[in-house]
Amino acid sequence: MPQSPNLSLPYLEAGQAQKHVTLNEALRVLDAVTQLAVLAVTATPPGSPANGERHIVGADPGGAFAGHEKEIAAWQDGVWVFLSPQPGWRAWDADEEELLVWTGTEWSGISAGGGGGSGDVEGPDGGVADGELAVFDGTSGKAIKKDRGTISHLGVGAPFDDTDTDTSNRLVVRTNRSVFYAIPESETPGSGDIKIQISKEAGGNSASFFFATSFSGRAEFGLVESDDFKLKVSPDGSDWIEALVVAPDTGKVRLPENDVAEIVLLADQAAYDALDPPDADTLYLVPEEE
């Protein structure tokens, strides 16, 4: 019997007897696939299906579903009718609450971004607003923007592991300039202040700024491998010189490479001239005369 090319609907023939049988068969197919929504993807036929109930047959099916993997199963007039999907057919999976599309080989979930893969977008009022950030969660397979979510790695202007193949750099910024500025008091939650905190785990760790040439260290300052504030420099990234050390308990400054034990601020040049003699291990700071 001739059939339509896309839905395989049977055609009525001229002078055909019992035309209603052929017409009803075509209507059953239309009823099954139009506005297609399935209860679930399952390999096992339900025990007591309702008339018109539809399913996508899952992997390794059994019972009445055997041999019909990935087809659409519709319960019509007391029997299971199986329909082969065509590429581009879409079906709403009520069990998983996701839209599926038949690629020609698989039923693939349509994500919030429109590509393949399962997932929802979660966020304020159930969605991500324009200008907000949606983050793909590889564990749940969802795009998430909710409250104060966490991003494990981020690259701005470059892949986050562009210079660090073990991905220990959680943030990589490739730019010529960066600006940080305070939220004014007139805006919530602004205070007009801006403070950058770098916190280390213990006294022997480092909390510092590191400067490099072609990723080879040249200078570092901060709490370097102790709670002393240090300034270190290097000609090659391997050999480091401590140029300045400030003790946190006394505030005294040392210049290790200059054998300076103490730095003293004098009132004026006359105070320096009065030293008899100056201490060779002390660095004296004398204000410039006006």
Supply database-style keywords.
single chain, about 290 residues, mainly beta, five-stranded antiparallel beta sheet, four-stranded mixed beta sheet, 2 helices, 20 strands
Structure description:
This protein has 290 residues and is mainly beta. Helices cover 7% and strands 28% of the residues. The chain contains 2 helices and 20 strands. It has helices spanning 19-33, 269-273, and strands spanning 37-38, 41-42, 54-57, 72-76, 79-83, 90-93, 98-102, 107-109, 121-122, 135-137, 142-144, 154-156, 171-173, 207-213, 216-223, 229-233, 241-246, 253-254, 262-265, 282-285. A 5-stranded antiparallel beta sheet has the order 14-15-16-17-18, with no helix packed on it. A hairpin with a 7-residue loop joins strand 16 (229-233) and strand 17 (241-246). The longest helix is centred in the N-terminal third of the chain and has 15 residues, at 19-33. The radius of gyration is 37 Å and the shape is rod-shaped. The N and C termini lie far apart (110 Å). The model is unreliable at 112-119 (pLDDT under 50).
